[in-house]
Amino acid sequence: SVRKRNPQKIDIGAVFSHPPKDHKAIKNIAPVQRELVFDVDLTDYDAVRTCCSGANICRRCWAYMNMAIKVMDVGLKEDFGFEHVFWVYSGRRGVHAWISDEDARMLSNDARSAVAHYFEVQCESENNKEGLKLHSPMHPLLTRSFSILEPMFIQYIIPFSGQGLLADSESWTKVLRTLPSGAQNIVENLTKKWKTSDSEPAEKWEDLKRQIGIVVGKGKSTKGKGAQYLKGEDRVRVEMWPYETVFKHTYPRLDINVSTHQNHLLKSPFCVHPKTGRVCVPIDSTKIDQFDPFQVPTLPQLMTELDEYEKVNGKEKNDENRKSVRDWEKTSLKPSFSHFEGQLKQLQKRLRRDQRDLADKDAAVLGEF
Hints:
- The chain is of the alpha+beta class.
- Helix content is 45%, strand content 8%.
- The chain has helices at 2-5, 59-78, 102-105, 109-119, 140-157, 169-177, 184-195, 201-215, 232-250, 256-260, 299-313, 334-366; strands at residues 11-12, 15-16, 31-33, 36-41, 85-89, 94-99, 266-267, 282-283.
């Protein structure tokens, strides 16, 4: 049926109480279950990425997707107990998460909204000029996220090979200007120091944290002066500045509307993106650092690989004793399909276990042992 219709792409939505095609005849058609989904798109990072904008992407800004997956994957599994979290490349400039646990599929719209907003952090954007303001102690989600994101901030955001946040005098001057008013002595000290040194961006970041530690009373000062300089809200704002800066440049920026409604459509895995020609392949979250969107198979590439396979191996014959090789096994999609099959087998195993447990429970109630 799908091959007959030959669609350009396939969007997946909810399971409804009645066939959606009957919506004119049946008034109360409603979604009854749907995977919990998340959408992360690089266009939402335009306020902080310096290498690209709009629909354009490169390997430097793709690091934002790695950060988003690492934070979201551990949060969904550890904080909510979800087991079946499945990541898929959108085919162009983002990633999608599909959570297939039964508890996730049965969530109401309000519950989906609560889960989505749990991960939301109000970073600086066109609609939020004031930006993020944190308070101590931070929520455990943010504490854990910072431990994940700060090393990636140092590796991908501040050096010249990344977004260049501390790579040259123009860039680090802008960063110093974002320090709260209570930290003006830090601005003066580091401006003087960095103008006469060739320190690396990672060293500059450590300089910043060290100076902040001193003025909030958590570091050692050579002059013996410390926490008495900053108290109350001034102290909080300076102390939280490193966390706010890291989150501003690295924390996942979600399209909340995609997650909050059961009837929202999302592109199916293994579709071909109509503008890039790339296949929407699954991503192994345990190997996210190895994923390269520019190495994702395209439709012309797959056609060439199939032709080359037949040239080398010949066309398959209808031989009952010969194991048939599926088309995807003849192409560079094989690793992606293998990962996808592995995810489905885990989900199927869980469903069978749940059905067995339910049958045992029913038998216990009825006394049928």
